[in-house]
Amino acid sequence: MRIAMIGTGYVGLVSGACFSEFGTNVVCVDKDETKINKLHENIMPIFEPGLDKLVENNVSGGRLEFTTDLKEAVQSADAVFIAVGTPTRRGDGHADLSYVYGAAKEIAEAMDGYTVVVTKSTVPVGTGDEVERIIRETRPDADFDVVSNPEFLREGSAIEDFMRPDRVVIGTESERAQEVMRQLYRPLFLIETPILFTQRRTSELIKYAANTFLAAKITFINEIADLCEEVGADVQAVSKGIGLDGRIGKKFLHAGPGYGGSCFPKDTLALVKTAQQYGRPLKIIETVVDVNEQRKKQMAEKVIKACGGSVDGKKIAVLGVAFKPNTDDMRDSPSLDIIPALQEAGASVAAFDPEAMGEAKEMLSGVDWKENSYDTMDNADALVLITEWNEFRMLDLDRVKGLLNAPVMVDLRNVYNRQEMKDAGFDYTCIGRPK
Ligand code: UGA
């Protein structure tokens, strides 16, 4: 088996490397020559734990290659995966499919012999139909099937998610294409991973339904956290109390500053737009989008309140700016709302993140970027924890107190124990737990 992976972004690179680890020959293609040259030197364009090692092993094993030559990669492939970006389209909130359709056209021009074209990018319902139409129009003689195979990788644990998934979803009614996909995922049969074969449109919707459901679950617990603060209850205990019910499940019930990242904000919005377009508005998801947007902004208010009602002229130390730990991804991170709002309220901000500062410097201005946690909080009037990197979970509290001007800590991820913070003499604010 030989596959071509079009796009070496997050999804394409991880999926390509993992398929090669399964023993398939993989060629990853990207238009960006600099990126491909760096990959040839084993320099990863993203931070993802274990990825560099995986790539290195499979390149030296001869199963993984990188190229800018789409034509050659596609010609020799049994299956071609489209893993290009589908960002939010400016102006209307729909997913921008220009990269997907562009790739479909190029693939059509290059394909040789029966080829399975697989959309791995997150695409709205009906995109597979349009990909098929474009290929047919470009190459009326082509022998191919278009399959939907959404990814369910989480940044930071993407390799594990690929190697040990809860399920694999494959959307196609062609038995010939099903057989190719079955071959590709054969290693997962050994660990008895459920493989769900379904219609292409259904598969496309499964991806959005999964992400929007998870986003709704987080938003639900975030609102319950706000209520906990009003009524004097503890959201962590509520999460546990409801999560132990198998029908609810305990994952994705961690209250925080609002979901961010490259997927949930974009996918919730895109599904809302699709539903409106079909005249079947999804009122729950529309509300989830609004509540989450508001929430990220409200987090700055929480910090200001913790600082006695004003941060004007104060220095605020921020730990963690990535949208979650173990990634350098800043897309739609809550920090992008919180930090500018604090600056607007007159605060100066010093910040540190173990991996995301490179990207963050491009997106946030006026921040004093530091080399480590303790330098960041030196002489600050409050410490705000936005991203729960492991290294922020065990700070030396005496040292923290000694460095801060005032022992004010705002923990937006509920990493610390309230009693411990109280005993250590902190004025501690967290999410959905009594003060
Ligand atoms: C998400 C999904 O979890 C993946 O299954 C999916 O494949 C991926 O999107 C995608 O569509 O590509 P990801 O965005 O990497 O993965 O990260 P998550 O771990 O899902 O976290 C998303 C956001 O929700 C983060 O901001 C995180 O801090 C927040 N979150 C998550 C919470 O606030 N509370 C929780 O309990 C869980």
From TrEMBL:
Sorted UniProt keywords: NAD, Oxidoreductase
Annotated residues for binding of substrate: 152-155, 207, 252-256, 260, 324
Enzyme class, UniProt record, top EC level: oxidoreductase
SMART domains reported in the protein's UniProt record: UDPG_MGDP_dh_C
UniProt-annotated binding residues for NAD(+): 30, 35, 86, 122, 155, 266, 331
Keyword Chloroplast: no
GO MF annotation list: NAD binding; UDP-glucose 6-dehydrogenase activity
Pathway assigned in UniProt: Nucleotide-sugar biosynthesis; UDP-alpha-D-glucuronate biosynthesis; UDP-alpha-D-glucuronate from UDP-alpha-D-glucose: step 1/1
Catalytic activity, EC: 1.1.1.22
Catalytic activity: UDP-alpha-D-glucose + 2 NAD(+) + H2O = UDP-alpha-D-glucuronate + 2 NADH + 3 H(+)
InterPro entries: 6-PGluconate_DH-like_C_sf, NAD(P)-bd_dom_sf, UDP-Glc/GDP-Man, UDP-Glc/GDP-Man_DH_C, UDP-Glc/GDP-Man_DH_C_sf, UDP-Glc/GDP-Man_DH_dimer, UDP-Glc/GDP-Man_DH_N, UDPglc_DH_bac
Domain of life: Bacteria
GO-annotated biological processes: polysaccharide biosynthetic process; UDP-glucuronate biosynthetic process
Active site: 263 (nucleophile)
NCBIfam families to which the protein is assigned, alphabetical: NDP-sugDHase
Family: Belongs to the UDP-glucose/GDP-mannose dehydrogenase family.
The protein, known as: UDP-glucose 6-dehydrogenase
Native organism: Candidatus Terasakiella magnetica
